[in-house]
Amino acid sequence: EKEDEIVERLGFYDLEDYCEHRLTYEGDKLAGYPLWVQGMEYSGCPICHEPMRQVFQLVSEDNLPYMFGDVGIGHVLQCQTHKEQLAFIWACS
């Protein structure tokens, strides 16, 4: 349900439409659209509960000699309103 709300906010018809048009990159990157390994996983801000946005994406063993699970991707997220609120999430295939 939350995933559908986020996809709609981004202006896409549904998750499949988002996946076809996503502007993602399979590597370390600053900002931009996240490359989700297992579907969207936006953490909510602990203060306002709004979905946080990606600040940085870290891919296993790209520039950082660390593996997130089985060739996973880590995401540093930040609340757009409460800039001091950060989260780190990761998922693997």
Reconstruct the topology from this structure.
Blueprint: H1 2-9, H2 15-21, E1 29-30, E2 53-59, E3 73-78, E4 86-91
Antiparallel strand pairs: 1-2, 2-3, 3-4
In short:
With 93 residues, the protein is an alpha+beta fold. It is built from two helices and four strands, in the order ααββββ. The mean pLDDT is 84.
Descriptive notes:
It is a single chain. With 93 residues, the protein is an alpha+beta fold. The protein contains two helices and four strands; from the N terminus they run ααββββ. Strand 3 and strand 4 form a beta hairpin. The chain is globular.
- Read across the widest sheet, the strand sequence of neighbours is 1-2-3-4
Overall tally of domains: 1
C-alpha termini separation:
22 Å
Summing up helix and strand content along with how strands pair, one would put the structural category as alpha+beta
Order of SSEs: HHEEEE
Tell me the helix content: 10-25%
What is the typical, i.e. mean, pLDDT? 84
- The tally of helices reads 2
Largest sheet: 4 strands, antiparallel
Q: Estimate what percentage of residues fall within beta strands.
A: 15-25%
The counted number of beta strands is 4
Q: Measured on Cα atoms, how large is the radius of gyration?
A: 13 Å
Query: Spans of 5+ residues with little confidence (pLDDT < 50)?
Result: none
- Report the principal-axis shape: globular
Quaternary status: single chain
Salient structural properties:
single chain, 93 residues, alpha+beta, 4-stranded antiparallel beta sheet, 16% helix
